[in-house]
Amino acid sequence: EVQLVESGGGLVQPGGSLRLSCAASGFIFTRYFMSWVRQAPGKGLECVSSIGSRSQITYYADVVKGRFTISRDNAQNMVYLQLDSLNSEDTAMYYCARIRCETEARLSTNSNSWGQGTQVTVSS
Hints:
This protein is mostly beta strands. It contains no helices and 10 strands. It has a 6-stranded mixed beta sheet, with no helix packed on it. A 4-stranded antiparallel beta sheet has the order 1-3-8-7, with no helix packed on it. It starts with a strand and ends with a strand.
């Protein structure tokens, strides 16, 4: 079975940093794009970033470009999202997903291609 387990979220002050991790298992990790998707309170799912199977293709939403960095370690079946210069608008549940999120017509967590999420709260 596909398993995606996120970690690394927490409470951080504006301007601070976090690194989110996603541990993947149950599929051939090297064959797939991976993504980070977030959902702020009362809002819909938002594609944040994606990365190709060999890290040669990446995508970032305009609102995070230059502040967030996606990476993967295929030897360890891990995906990471480095979040720098955080602000209150970044407060959200962050999900790891086995999708190329910028190409999806509709985002939905109702699939085993998604993890359970890790909460990021930016507040002073």
